[in-house]
Sequence to fold (741 residues):
Amino acid sequence: MIPCWRYLRSSKSVLGFVFVASVIWLLLDMAVLRLSVRDVNTRLLKERVIRRQDLTRRQDKVTPLMETFLEESVVKQEVSDKVSDGVDVQPVGLYRRRKDKAAVKDNQNRRGNPSKVKPDSVAKEPVDLQNGVEKNDSVALSRRAVNAKIIEPAKAAPNTSVRVFNQPRAVKEQPPVQELPLKEDNQKEPPNQGARNTSSAKDEKLQLQNNSIVAHPVKASVHQVLSLDATAAPRDPDAVGQFGQPATVPSEDSVKMKQRWNEGFFNVYLSEQIPLDRAIPDTRPEICAGNVVHDELPSTSVILCFVDEVWSTLLRSVHSVLNRSPPHLLKEIILVDDFSKKRYLKENLDHYMANFSKVRIIHLQERQGLIRARMAGAAVATGEVLTFLDSHVECNVGWLEPLLERIYLDRSKVACPVIDVISDQDMSYKMVDNFQRGIFTWPLTFGWNALSDEYVKKNNMTAADPIRCPVMAGGLFSIDKKYFYQLGAYDPGLEVWGGENMEISFKVWMCGGQIEIIPCSRVGHIFRGQNPYQFPNDRRKTVERNLARVAEVWLDEYKELFYGHGYRHLLDNIVSDIGDLSQQIQLRAKLKCKSFKWYLDNVYPELEAPLVKAAGLVFNRGLRTCLSVHAGVLFFETCDLSKQSQHFNYTWLKQIRQEDMCVDHNEGRLILQPCSVERTALHWLHKSSKSKLPQHLVAENGGKQACMEVIKSSKVHILHLAACNVDSLFQQWEFTNYYAQ
Fold:
């Protein structure tokens, strides 16, 4: 102390000491202030969410236990600063687990094995994975079934009855859906919400509600996306498939695995070893975690339709929605059982889901197929937005709000999540490329297409920007409920499954809407090699019939490309009856939808869609002259492109047309007849990769083949059918322009 005191006796030394101490004190004070502000901001966000949930609880009579769940599930934006004593916050999601493994509960108790679900045992100590608490005996597990009538605007099939479970209120008949004004083509696109902070310009976007245009407040409140991941107990890090990691089946169980494969056409045996609420990796682009969305987003009803779905994957789908969706936005989960035959999907499922107040079950009393099952679920939905999901998915953190945000900004947008892959072999969760969109190729075959680097650079896209999608996959999407019915919902004439994604995609784009893939919303999906369920009729015929309905209503003159790519047999009404199309054609006219050519030019210009395969002059190599028409008679003359009488089209229906007349034959002589799609005699093979006579015009006439040939004469050249000769130049023809093989 003496040396220090001697040092401080100097006035300059005292001032220096005071200065250093003041700086240190100031830095400490600033640190404390920063922590206080952060704590206040977090508390304000909590209070906002809790106040909103209090209002919802009073309306829907939700138990006070929900408040506990909300307090625990509010996002901690600074995760790294919130590590408490004895608790380790994991990097995936916002769940917590204790380091002491002895405190981890046995995962087998949380896998929901249907063989262990019994009414008595469930009623004693049911576990609510949504609220994170155990319920008492006040929860009534046996709920009386009620009959529900599927009402307009969704039309159910005749003689269809429905049993509804977990229905909180009687289904009221919906008022007629009034048409709401749609966005015009020249209306300015809302600013991109994908990667940039919400600005006042976004807050001024118009929201259509109650058949009137209501502007959002200029200073609408926003918050960062809530990356919730609730769970009833600390997750076991060593559980099978935890964190979306690949899992294997012991060699001694390989026989059991193979025996159960056909139950779902994926590794059913392995799926049952994985926890129902397992953690999965956050596959969103890093920028997504900092995105902001509006506080007043619309609520949604999540609809999952299934038939004979595997128990573990169905429950895992439901738990992923409950655990990773903001409770105030999740109005309900509607499970539509499309007349399953599996016994565990009846009473066992009803008893299990009785633990969750937001889950409702509809048991259809007749097999309706995916399309009508979705319409049955939509008919009883009470949310402002309909979110359709498959029954073998796992929703990722922060999946819901980005979808609802796009619809909040523009109700005519249909928002789709990025569909990550859950392996059908090892059940691992795999991220897919951000820059992918849904497309189709002829004949209306869905596929995925990666955006080119040039397209990404040209549009200055980030990994979080929404992607315009010409055709959606159809299994996972969100749509404004009023807009869904304004579009006429699904075509009720479509059967079971197939083509419904094409139908609604064309309808949305051509009738004033847009389809977008939202990279900040991720949902994993098991892609199966084949359907594990049976079709009421032949699967191939069902899909073909559905696609033919779509082509006839929406493709205009381009429907010939559909038929010409392998579906020409559907033109025969005796072979295929696609049903009445009058209502769908009237709906399109009523909505004032644009043409399919507009769709190709503005939505999907990359698709090659020439209306004909070849066109121009028809040149014969032997005569060195061209085919022509005069007074309805075929003859030959010197080739002249300026003469319209020499212009022919070779169509996708394999017809040689001159305006509305087609080249036909009569007792071997070739003549012109009015074109008809039913007559097989009018079909010609030319430039086919499968033909051994690519330069010839080969007439398809039953099982025999004959070629178009010209007989040279000093007076009149004769055009007729003759036996094909590969070396004859008088049987070889060439069109001026070829557009497709």
Notes: The domain at 612-738 is CATH 2.80.10.50 (Trefoil (Acidic Fibroblast Growth Factor, subunit A)). The mean pLDDT is 79.
